[in-house]
Each structure stands twice: as structure tokens, then as C-alpha cells.
Design brief:
Elements (H helix, E strand, L loop, with lengths): L1 H83 L9 H50 L7 H9 L1
Helix pairs in contact: 1-2
Length: 160
């Protein structure tokens, strides 16, 4: 009897001690989850800032590219006039002017390819931003307990 009483007392003590440890474990789990959420939010913000800086750089490059294209266009118009004999070509011969013309065309094509690359990069950035927003929206939807969601919420979550 004495052993049974000691055993039951010790087991009830263990149960009592295990309950506070469970709440301690639960608190630790909650803290850990909050820390992970905070780190995730920081990473998302950092990714958004990277995309923003990249988008700004692309925009600046596009503006510079536009200026260079305008300058080439002006030079091309002047060169065409000289080739047709409408403007004074000075000491340039026709072969030299044709050479300059072909170099101008090659430079213009190069700039157009570069512009296409920049536009593709800009489109990629837009798609990455859209994906990030959808992921965030999905995380928010999934954080809500399924029992609290109605049919429309579930459909929207599936669609995302």
C-alpha cells in the first residue's frame, strides 16, 4: 500500500510537473513561430527592396538608352542627307559615309536588342512581384482555421 501510495503520489506529481512544462513548451513553440514569421516578413521585405532597386536601375537604363537612340537618330538623319547630296558632306567621300551609315545601323540594332533585354527583365520583376503578393495572400488565407472559412474563402484559396 505504501508503495502504491508513493507511486500514485509521484505519478500525480509528474503529471502536475508535466503540465507546466507543456505550457512552457507551448510558449516556446509560440515564440519560435513568431520569430519565424518575423524573419519571413523581413526576407519578403528584403526581396521587395531588391526588386524595387532592380526596377529603378532598369528604368534608368531605359531612359539612358532612349537618349542614345535619339542622338543616333539625329546623326542618322544628317548622314542620310549627306549621302543623298542634300547637305554638305565636307571632305567625306561616299565610301566613308556608307561605312558610318552601316556602323550607325549596327549600333541602333544593338541598342534595340539591349532595350528588349531590359523590357524582359522588367517583365520578370513584375511577375516576381505578383508571385510574392500571391504567396503572401495565400499565407494569410491558410493561417485562418478551415472551420472558420466559408465556401467562397476556400474557393479563393484554391484559386490562389
Amino acid at each position: 500500500r505504501r508503495q502504491a501510495t508513493e507511486y500514485s503520489t509521484s505519478s500525480s506529481d509528474e503529471e502536475f510537473e508535466s503540465k507546466p512544462s507543456l505550457t512552457h513548451k507551448a510558449k516556446r513553440a509560440i515564440r519560435k513561430r513568431r520569430k519565424l514569421e518575423k524573419e519571413t516578413k523581413q526576407l519578403i521585405k528584403q526581396e521587395e527592396l531588391k526588386r524595387l532597386h532592380k526596377a529603378q536601375a532598369v528604368q534608368r537604363q531605359l531612359e539612358e538608352l532612349e537618349e542614345r537612340q535619339r542622338a543616333l537618330e539625329k546623326f542618322g538623319v544628317q548622314l542620310e542627307r549627306e549621302l543623298r547630296g542634300e547637305a554638305d558632306s565636307g571632305t567625306k567621300d561616299e565610301n566613308q559615309m556608307l561605312h558610318e551609315w552601316f556602323e550607325l545601323v549596327m549600333e541602333k540594332n544593338k541598342l534595340m536588342r539591349y532595350e528588349s533585354e531590359l523590357l524582359i527583365i522588367a517583365q520578370e520583376l513584375e511577375l516576381e512581384d505578383h508571385q510574392s503578393r500571391l504567396e503572401q495572400k495565400l499565407r494569410e488565407k491558410m493561417a485562418i482555421d478551415d472551420s472558420l472559412k466559408d465556401e467562397m474563402d476556400l474557393n479563393e484559396e484554391d484559386e490562389i
